[in-house]
Amino acid sequence: MNAIQGFPVGPVAGNPDDVASSLMALIGRTRGYALNIGALAVICATAATQEERSDAAEDLSDYCGRFHGAMEQALRDGTSFADMDKIKPQQQAIQTFLDRIETLPDRAMCFDRAEAVALANMARQEVLQAIYDLIAHVQERQDARLSKQIEQMAERSALLDRMTRDMSRISRMIGMVSINASVEAARAGGESGRTFKVISAEMRGLATQSSQLVAEMRSRLGDDAHAQTASGEEGQRSNRASRSASM
Q: Which residues are within 8 A (CB) of 120 and not within 5 positions of it... i.e. 6 or more apart?
């Protein structure tokens, strides 16, 4: 097995919340792998029979591969780890553990107890804490992303609300101008009256169109408000599911 050098990070397609949830579930599984590696190392060093030691060594090799593969995938695909400076201590702890377990399957039959206990302690203390910190980091970024989305939707809703109020005011003004034009048409009569009638008709048409547009925008505002509420609820459900999956 090769250690993960530099924790490569690459883009992942898909909904960011779904990606984060899958990532936390994947990282969550590595906790069990790390603990099993430590426990199996101790068994290899203390087994009473060759058969027991051989079985433990086989399982140890399997869990080393699982841990390496899962952590490599998580850190390669982890777009949620964009801020690498924040996870440098965790990166170092996991990289050190990966370096330690890289040759374990080849030496499992000749472990000494001190080495096995040291590895088990590393898995239980340093690596486990690093994994918890990584999960918390992903959750923090997921929460921040959800908050930003809700804030952007609220800003958009407020902008549309201002626009509908302005358009409603303009529509009322157009309606008043149309009424005034009708009055002037009745007073003027003749060619001037006909001109005022044409203007009045056009103004009424504009007022009607403006009212319809305002009604459509208000309907859209209602849809956006519903979508904003649904998005917030879905984000909360996703966060709860993510926390459960990573436990």
A: 38, 39, 41, 42
Q: What's the rounded Cα separation, in Å, for the pair 209 and 173? A: 13
71 and 98 Cβ atoms separated by less than 8 Å: yes
Nearest alpha carbon to residue 35 among 115, 96, 123, 107: 123
Report d(CA 182, CA 186) in Å as an integer. 6
Q: Does the reported pTM lie above 0.90?
A: no
Residue type at position 7: F
| In contact, 99 and 122? CB cutoff 8 Å | no
Sign of the torsion formed by the C-alpha atoms of 129, 130, 131 and 132: positive
CA distance 76 to 247: 22
Query: 156-206, pLDDT tens digit by residue?
Result: 777 777 777 777 777 777 767 667 766 666 676 666 666 766 666 776 777
Amino acid at 5: Q
Q: Radius of gyration of the chain from Cα atoms?
A: 33
List Cβ neighbours of 84 (8 Å cut-off, separation of 6 or more): 7, 9, 91
Band of the pLDDT at 111, cuts 50, 70, 90? confident
Instruction: Using the structure block, give the residue that is written with the tokens 């899958």.
Output: 22
Other CB atoms within 10 A of residue 6 CB: 10
- Which has the closest alpha carbon to 197: 180, 173, 181? 181
The C-alpha angle with vertex 133 and arms to 102 and 230, in degrees rounded to 5, equals: 125
CA–CA distance, 55 with 204 (Å, rounded to integer): 89
In order of their start, the domains of the chain are: 16-146 (1.20.120), 148-245 (1.10.287.950)
